[in-house]
Design brief:
The chain is α/β, with parallel strands linked by helices. The chain has 18 helices and 12 strands.
């Protein structure tokens, strides 16, 4: 099998293909798929294709500076690893490997509530800033317990996702029977045996890791970690309201980030509720299908916020040039999810490192070709959005 270090692995799609070869179909489709007809999933990519560059030629750019600051944390380039749930299904090192690779690369990492590793272990694995993404799964007691742990462990920001009042209908997952895979019983996994046996390396690592983990960061006082199989039901009782954001801000005592904003109005409400940053996001096309691509609504949100909070964006990023386009349209930095998760699934921490190296090299080359020496100089003069 091709290694992630191979010179033939030149872009994120190459890592995606390696992940597809290593993972059983049920796990790969969970990572790769979107909601319903996957219209928004495709639109996230098409939106980047519709934005073209306007380079400033005959400019001497011997080197480029990708450094930026997000909520006071210095980053080597404007990238954060987005929260990806169940990462431990993709590779046993899961969130710890992703956080370690992010820190070594000078990027930030955001840990999902749906982590297979304890938040304290993940924070210890990274030398860079780590944020905690919160769902209200398990109720207020469980949320407050997780917040207290994250604060004690040194997490730099709290990310609250507001676009999941229920889980989106991810049709690939329904057809593949993801709920049965996550069930703790052996009998529920019998239908998966042919595809699991067809991926012996993944199966061996899965079994050595003890199978499907519980959620060690969803622990209400007096109870144990929540099993993964219970998450869908629990999520339906965990919708976040604007009033919730206010008590979460007060409980956290630090920068709060609101993720899942798709309109200028919601961005302003988030700022009014105390958000220090908002993330323009449609959940990677995994929640409500048919909403616009994140990149298309980014300028509206930037204008609405008017500098009162930092604006981040995720959705559809596969190349460093995509990141540059988002920065040109007003994003302070971007979140990438699938782009690094493919690397994680392919080769653990080495795969995440390879994904980040690819994206950073893409950015450096793009800035030189644009005639731009620093990230801070990027603006709308470098892009054309008329298409």
């Amino acid at each position: 099998m091709t290694s992630v270090a191979s010179p033939r692995v030149v872009n994120i799609e190459d890592l995606r293909l390696l992940a597809r070869r290593r993972l059983p179909k049920v796990v790969f489709d969970y990572l790769d798929g979107g909601a319903e007809g996957e219209v928004t999933l495709r639109e996230n990519r098409r939106a980047f294709d519709a934005v073209t560059f306007q380079p400033h030629h005959a400019v001497s750019v011997s080197g480029v500076d990708l450094r930026t600051a997000v909520l006071g944390s210095e980053l080597a380039f404007p990238l954060l690893l987005a929260p990806v749930g169940y990462s431990r299904l993709m590779h046993p090192a899961g969130e710890r490997a992703a956080a370690g690779a992010a820190g070594a690369a000078g990027a930030a990492y955001i840990l999902s509530t749906m982590s297979g590793h304890k938040l304290e272990e993940v924070k210890a694995a990274s030398s860079g800033p780590v944020w905690y993404q919160l769902y209200l799964i398990g109720g207020r007691d469980a949320a407050e317990a997780a917040i207290a742990r994250a604060r004690a462990a040194g997490y730099a920001a709290l990310v609250v996702t507001i676009d999941t009042p229920v889980a989106g209908l991810r049709e690939r997952d329904v057809r593949n029977g993801v709920a049965e895979l996550l069930d703790g019983s052996f009998g529920a996994k019998l239908p998966f045996l042919p595809q699991l046996l067809a991926r012996p390396a993944w199966l061996a690592s899965f079994l050595r890791d003890g199978g499907v983990p519980a959620l060690p960061n969803v622990v209400a006082p007096g109870q144990g970690p929540m099993p993964l199989v219970d998450v869908t039901t629990a999520l339906a009782r965990a919708a976040v309201t604007w009033e919730d954001l206010r008590w979460l801000r007060d409980a956290w005592h630090g920068p709060m980030v609101v993720k899942g904003v798709l309109t200028g109005d919601d961005a302003c409400r988030a700022v009014d509720a105390g958000a220090a940053a908002v993330v323009v996001s449609n959940h990677g096309g995994r929640q409500l299908d048919g909403v616009p691509a994140s990149l298309r609504v980014l300028p509206e949100v930037v204008t609405a916020v008017g500098g009162q909070a930092e604006v981040l964006m995720d959705g559809g990023i596969r190349r460093g040039s995509d990141i540059v386009k988002a920065i040109c349209l007003g994003a302070r930095a971007v979140l990438v999810g699938r782009a690094y998760a493919y690397g994680l699934a392919a080769a653990g921490e080495a795969g995440v490192t390879r994904a980040l190296d690819i994206l950073r090299a893409d950015m450096e080359r793009t800035l030189k070709l644009l005639g731009c020496a620093t990230i801070s100089q990027l603006d709308r003069s470098f892009v054309d959005t008329t298409a």
